[in-house]
Amino acid sequence: MSEIRNTVTSLDTNKKASNQKEDTILEVNNLTISFRTNSGLVRAVRDISFELKRGKTLAIVGESGSGKSVTSKAILGISAGNSITDSGEILYDGMDLLKIDEDDMYKLRGDRIAMIFQDPLSSLNPIIKIGKQITEAMILKNKTSRVQAKKDFNERLAILSANAIEATGEEEKVKELAKTFDTLNIEALQLETKYNDSYTYAEELKADIEEFLFLVEKKQKVDTKAAKKNLKAKLAKVNDELFRRGNEAEIKKLETELDNADVTLVDEKLSEETTKTLNSLTSIIDKILAQTKPNFLGFAYLAHTSQADKIKDMEIEKANELSEQILQSEFLVEFKEYTKKAIINSHEKSLEKKENLLPALKEAADFYSAKEYTKKDALAKAKEISALVKDSIDTLETHKDSEVYTFGSSLNSAIERYFKAVKNNPKEEKRYASQTAKRDKLIAKGKTIDWKVLPKVVYDLDELKANIVAVPDDLKHHYQGVVTDYDIDFDKRTEKLIESFRKTASKVVEKVTPTTARETAIRLMEEVGIPEPRIRYNQYPFEFSGGMRQRIVIAIALSANPEILICDEPTTALDVTIQAQILELINKLKKERNLSVIFITHDLGVVANMADEIAVMYAGKIVEKGTVDDIFYDPRHPYTWALLSSMPDLDTDEKLDAIPGTPPNMIYPPKGDAFAARNKYALEIDFEEQPPLFEISETHSAATWLLHPNAPKVETPASITSRIERMRQKNGGAQ
Ligand SMILES: Nc1ncnc2c1ncn2[C@@H]1O[C@H](COP(=O)(O)OP(=O)(O)OP(=O)(O)O)[C@@H](O)[C@H]1O
Ligand SMILES: [Mg+2]
Q: Could you tell me the residue ranges of all domains in the chain?
């Protein structure tokens, strides 16, 4: 029996200092995940890397068991208990999601990164009404995020002021500017809160009118007098001047009409006149709800400087423009000037610290390269150097430098991994030796045994140590690049910082009360295409069809307004027509909300119309990735060919090509290209050596030896090329 040696490798070492690009929202580097099981280590994900671009859809396509769900769960931090993350990083907003603690992960999960699972029933609680399931998390998360936003705003304004004072020495002036900025934001928030209240009452009023008309039409029992009273009261609460602006006269007229309206039912019907009044009310509310929101900061400024009259009777859009112009030219121009000085000051201070840190980083790398050190010393050193690194961060930078932010956690986890292996390797060797000896003894005695010796899991200590060294080493290289980068657009950074202040401030007023949560839920239900959401709101999951349940799950995912939506086979459990509708819905939401989507599926056909980029996964590896056009019109990996030819093609009677064989056992992944055994184009080397990802173009790469310059020329199979040709023609000859 051949001995199987399982050396777990962690290939962090050759990773070049990576820093997230601005158009990339999520980046996965060298992710490797295994599972401990009774029959050995399952290598579910093996050294995969990909990027998700902001506002784009990345499809991950592959057969069952290829590691798609394991990857997406790792991003959300919900990996199974028996999982081991052997190496890698998942970068999001300056953090490595593999290394942040559960509290921070909780804040991201659902809130900024949301996930939709395959089976909508399992994501819904059967005994809680749909409406409550949508609103519950909304209310809870809102509280924490408002407190957080206020804190963020104050902290950063304090840092900004301190830097501006340091740079200019003009303490009085800076304090006055900061105070004005703060006051303006508070006053803007007051305007916004009032506006939002009217907005909510207008929504409720509209809903109540709808319900009233609905009940009358269906000849249900209605207390029409009470209904009228309620409508009047609600309309009176839609009283914000900004909200009503431009429609004041019309609303007043309708108010009087409603006052005088006769709501007695004649032949179980409302009078034509009253119906008309109610319908007019609905349409004017619709009009206002769709209007552009006021520029609250601009309005607050004008009020603050007694110039409110300038925009008093102006329609909102014009007033927005003028107030922004005045705000910019009177206050912001000066505020920006000081902000820019503060940013430069903070940048230069941080630069100096970074420069001074270079020798310390080198010293740390040397320390960790040493032959021996105790865990205690290693951690103490990490603490010391991490504090210095943290101190070197430029806190006024809006784009977080992930390399720097994750330094401490990366270093600690590399140290932990190394010392864990130092402790476990000898134990594992011993266990393996003693089990083998026992087995051999029994065999020598002629006994048959019904158990297997579990494969040995030992870690390569040299590599693990190199991973520790790489952390300070990488940062040193990264800092060397930073300190010689003179090409910084400080005006752009100033704009961005002020923009982010304004955004944070408006988060403070995004108040979610039970009533507004209900309205949001109903709006979301409408957005995801649930008919009669007001009635559906009070129903239980079993009262919904499969497609509708999936829509509800999507509404829940959207309720926190996430940036990233991960869809793990969201349509597999649905029949074909419903599938198409859900795909269309996801596409629509992505566009409207500028979501970045990871779409997981085993069906290449599904992604043609929705993905921007595709990563093809096989046996835990990405074997090909590229844009949709790369993958559909110029596929290079034989596995991608196989996937393409197993797609049902409505235009031909050609037999469906099933992919021969089965995926490999991931406890013993094949040595070379995992697809070799099922691949009729496989070369000898495919069975021997793992092919690297060959770059075909800037966007396109594939891991197959067929792309090696010395490989024999293998043409794309004719059945694929003819399919591609047909696809091209169908799409109007698009390349
Ligand atoms: N907790 C676990 N313990 C052991 N093995 C696991 C565990 N979770 C996943 N695996 C294994 O990891 C591999 C990848 O699983 P994953 O769920 O990512 O597949 P998938 O690509 O999502 O497939 P599917 O299309 O069936 O959903 C499979 O071989 C699976 O059996
Ligand atoms: Mg899965």
A: 137-329+500-518
